[in-house]
Structure formats: C-alpha cells, structure tokens
C-alpha cells in the first residue's frame, strides 16, 4: 500500500473551501494528520465534534490497520520534508514542541504496529469493541435528524464487529494473542451489555417517527454483540490458553513509551520507577496511619476506611449521587476561577453522568468536542450499587472533573486554534493527562479541600492506589522481586517474583475500594501494560516542573499564571514535560 501523504485543510473540524495545500509547518502536518485520521476513523471525528452527519464506523479489519499505519508513515515522511525545507522552524517553540510530539507519538505507534500490538487490542477499557459502543454516548440526540444519523450508524455495528472478528482470526494465525484473563473479563462485560440489551435500550428514547428503523438497527447491533461475545468465548478464547499475563520487558518498555512519552527501557529506568513507587507507597502509608487514627483512635487505615464505607456520610440513589457530583464540580469552578485559574466561559460547563452498565469499574472523563457543542463529562459506574459513600468520591471527582481532567482537556480545546488539533486532542500523552489529574488532587489538598479525616483519608487512599499501581504493574510484567521490607501478605514472599495473585493480595491490603473494583483494576493492569504507571510518573513530572519554575522565578512566581500557561501548552511527553514546565 502506498503511504498516505496528508494535505492541509483549513481545519480538521470544518470543510475545506478551497483545494488543500501541502503542509508548510509541523502544525500543518499535525492537523492534516488529524483530518486524514478522522476519515479513516469516524469515531475519532465524533470525539472531536467533527462531521456530525458522519454515520460511518471505522474499518476494524487487518486492512484497516494497514491503512492507519500507511497514514503514520506518510505523515512522518511529510514532517521530515517540512523540517528539511525550513530548519528555522525549530526556533519557534510552538512548532518545535508540535514536531517533537508528532514524531514521538507516531514513531511509538509505528513500533507498536511492527510488534503486532494492533492484533492484541483486546482489554476491558480501550478495545475496538468498547470504542464502537462508547461513540453512541458521545453523539448528539437533540433532533430527529440527529437520531437518523444514530440509526444509520447503529446499522453499521454488525459490519464493524465483523471486521474486528477478522482481526482476531488473523491474530490467531499470527499467534498474537492476549491472555485468557482478558478474554474472560470482556466476555463478562458483553454479557452485561446484552442484559439490557444496550443498543435496544439506548434507542428507546428516540423519536417515535424513527422507532421502527431504530429498533431494527438496534436488534441487529445487539445480535452482533452476541456474535462477537460467542466468538471470543467459544473460538478465540480457547486458543489463548497458556498465554501468560505478563508481557515481558520488551513489550512492556514499548507500552510504557506509548503511555508516558518516555523511554524507560534500555537502562534501568523501569527498576528506578519501581523502587520509587515502593518508596511512595511507604511514605503515603505513614500518612494514612496518622489520618486513620483521626477517624477512629487506634484504627489501621483499612479499619478506618471500612468504617467510613459502612457508617460514614453517603448518598442514596444513582440520580442523587449524580446531582451531588455535579454540584461539587460547579462549586469548584466558582471557587477556583479567578483565584488559581482563569477559566474561559466554555470551561465552566461540565456534566456529571452515570456510566452505562458493562463499563469498567473506574470513573472516567470524556473530553468536550473541539467546538464545545458537547461538554466535558465525568462518568460514574455504579456497579449495581444504590448507596454511595462520599469519603472516597470527593478526591476522585477533583481528579476527573475540576480542576483535573476537565480543566486541562477543555483548556486544550479552547486553545486548539493557537496550537494544533493534534497537540490538544489526538496527540494526548497519558502521563501528561493523568499526571495533571493527580496534581489536581494534591493541589486541592494543599488548598485545604479535605478538612475532615474521612475525605483526606480518601485522598490518601487514591494516592496510595496510584503508588501501588507503579509497583505491581512493573513488578508483574517484568516479574521483579518483591521488596525485602514487604509486610502483610507479601512478607513470606520477599525476594520472590510478583504474580497476579500476590498483586491482588497487595491491592486488597492497601486500598479501601470495593472488591469488584480491585478485581477490575488487576485485569486492567495486566491487559493494558504501562498505562497504570503513567499517573504517578506524570504527577512527579508536574510537581518537579512547578518546583523548578518557583525556584527560578522566586518571589515573582505567579501560580495562577503558571497554571494557565502550563494548561495551554498542549500535550507533551515525559521526555519534555518537566523541562517545559520549569521554563514557564
């Protein structure tokens, strides 16, 4: 296949009014890539708020994977051409950052392609199966015309899943398989989708005039979900028996680069991160013990968290907790705007949502469309619960909403025209995004937003989870030895390599979360290697960057100005983030 060479439209979210031209700057190359990627992947276009009438779904077959990699190769070649023709572009900080980000991100994607990772895209959060369902929660449904687009797109779900099945079949032929644990868990998720069933339930609120078309399309889509579930359970799954959960050093280092924008593999960078994660675990544990004693004299952290979960303040009802979380974000915007942030009007709107059944257990955020016609949204999976203790929700909603993911990703959308759509959306680096959200939690602690022992223990519990993630994610995939000062269930296994069972025991001893959440977390770490460590490593870079900026500017350091400058840089990988933050 000939490599696709992108051309530059006026904007990836607006139709061209004249013939496209060849890019002349890295930002032009980046936005041309986004426009071409939206053509290949209409789900991406919906996420950005582009092409609202596009009813297509991506080609999830091996041919679709080849088309994506051809675009990547063509874009890298075009970037080389642009920089060779005008070396002075490297003197422009915005162009330099864009070029570095684009090259690093696309090179990482290319490496993953050659390693066959596209054929292993099956996990509980980010697989094509999940992307096809989630796109419908992002589509506009205000008018009959909107619903007509929904109906046409739902009708394409069977075709999309057939393409994905071809990829799974090719994965079997190439022996590029995921571990059985991932297959079993995805099958369980699909069972939950079918209990609704999801698509039929989703179209129930559509207009009466389209109900016949919507219901027919939904029935076929739900049938396609059942087909892909049966294929995973009965055909693909048995072929995965014996595939290990751990991916090994080479694949893990490659995955870490994709999630962090940093190469921790060639030397002992992963071991350093592992040791640092363990030190963070011990430091936070000492703080937890002090806070637990404030909750109940003499209580251990786990005893205090169990007490808070059963007897602490709680909200009854899914709609009631949604309203409470919405109010919390609205209050944070009012109190932080003008004092620690300067928020443009579009950033002041964010919606709390209840996640659909069959989602993974962790709360999540979906960013606004680039034009803000769809707001940023936080999503709470209920996992069948109707009672929601508050002690551990306050901190996580500062993480997901304000001042966490929402302020960063909505600000990126706000400044997209000054940078590039790529830098402010498609080129996101997990460690940058999750690192900011952890920084946001810690910043709220610095401001005194966890005044009572319960909510502060919830904040520390969230921090501890992210430290434990670093330890067990690296430990399991590299099978590193358990530290010599390990306690509890690990004490008799000191010096032995990590296993999933030991990791689950360690999680259970160091997190106040529900058992179902912890089970989901373990599957997540094993199925999405490297993603779990991006949170804490990203936070480390954000904190170090702020500290260096403070040291450089001294009394002239303005935290609000620093926040807004930092949030307006767009995406950066960890190879660049700390240094760029220090210069602000």
From TrEMBL:
It holds the Pfam family DUF885. Residues 14-27 have a biased composition (Low complexity). It comes from the Bacteria. Residues 1-27 are annotated as: Disordered. PANTHER family: DUF885 DOMAIN-CONTAINING PROTEIN, GLR0591 PROTEIN. This is DUF885 domain-containing protein. The lineage of its organism: Bacteria, Bacillati, Actinomycetota, Actinomycetes, Geodermatophilales.
């Amino acid at each position: 296949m000939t490599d696709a060479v992108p051309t530059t439209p006026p904007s990836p979210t607006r139709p061209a009014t004249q013939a496209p031209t060849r890019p002349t700057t890295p930002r032009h190359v980046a936005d041309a890539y986004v426009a071409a990627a939206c053509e290949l992947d209409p789900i991406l276009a919906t996420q950005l708020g582009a092409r609202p009438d596009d009813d297509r779904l991506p080609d999830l077959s091996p041919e679709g994977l080849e088309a994506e990699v051809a675009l990547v190769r063509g874009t890298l070649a075009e970037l080389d051409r642009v920089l060779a023709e005008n070396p002075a572009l490297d003197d422009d900080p915005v162009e330099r950052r864009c070029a570095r980000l684009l090259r690093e991100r696309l090179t990482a994607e290319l490496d993953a392609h050659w390693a066959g990772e596209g054929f292993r895209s099956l996990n509980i959060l980010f697989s094509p199966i999940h992307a096809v369902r989630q796109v419908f929660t992002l589509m506009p449904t205000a008018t009959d015309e909107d619903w007509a687009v929904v109906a046409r797109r739902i009708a394409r779900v069977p075709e999309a899943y057939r393409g994905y099945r071809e990829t799974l079949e090719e994965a079997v032929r190439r022996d590029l398989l995921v571990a059985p644990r991932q297959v079993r868990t995805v099958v369980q998720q699909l069972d939950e989708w079918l209990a609704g069933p999801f698509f039929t339930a989703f179209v129930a609120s559509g207009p009466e005039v389209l109900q016949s078309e919507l219901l027919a399309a939904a029935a076929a889509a739900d049938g396609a979900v059942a087909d892909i579930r049966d294929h995973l359970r009965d055909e693909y799954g048995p072929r995965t028996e014996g595939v290990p959960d751990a991916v090994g050093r080479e694949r893990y280092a490659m995955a870490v680069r994709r999630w962090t924008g940093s190469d921790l593999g060639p030397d002992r960078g992963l071991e350093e991160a592992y040791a640092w994660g363990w030190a963070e675990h011990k430091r936070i544990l000492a703080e937890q013990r002090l806070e637990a004693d404030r909750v109940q004299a003499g209580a251990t952290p786990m005893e205090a968290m169990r007490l808070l979960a059963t007897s602490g303040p709680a909200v009854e009802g899914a709609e009631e907790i949604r309203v409470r979380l919405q109010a919390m974000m609205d209050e944070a915007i009012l109190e932080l705007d003008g004092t620690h942030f300067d928020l443009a009007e579009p950033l002041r709107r964010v919606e709390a949502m209840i996640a659909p059944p069959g989602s993974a257990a962790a709360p999540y955020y979906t960013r606004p469309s680039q034009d803000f016609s769809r707001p940023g949204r936080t999503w709470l999976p209920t996992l069948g619960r109707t009672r929601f203790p508050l002690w551990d929700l306050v901190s996580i909603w500062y993480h997901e909403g304000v001042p966490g993911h929402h302020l960063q990703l909505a600000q990126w959308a706000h400044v997209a025209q000054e940078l590039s759509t790529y830098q402010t959306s498609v080129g996101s680096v997990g460690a940058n995004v999750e690192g900011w959200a952890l920084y946001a939690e810690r910043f709220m602690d610095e401001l005194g937003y966890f005044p009572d022992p319960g909510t502060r223990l919830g904040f520390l519990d969230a921090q501890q989870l992210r430290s434990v993630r670093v330890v067990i994610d690296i430990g399991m995939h590299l099978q590193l030895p358990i530290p010599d000062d390990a306690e509890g269930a690990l004490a008799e296994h000191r010096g032995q390599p990590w296993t999933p069972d030991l990791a689950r025991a360690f999680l259970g001893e160091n997190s106040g979360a529900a058992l179902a959440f912890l089970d989901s977390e373990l599957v997540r770490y094993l199925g999405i290697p490297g993603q779990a460590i991006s949170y804490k490593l990203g936070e480390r870079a954000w904190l170090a960057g702020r500290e260096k900026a403070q040291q450089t500017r001294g009394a002239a350091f303005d935290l609000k100005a620093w926040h807004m400058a930092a949030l307006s840089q767009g995406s950066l990988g960890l190879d660049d983030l700390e240094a760029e933050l220090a210069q602000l």
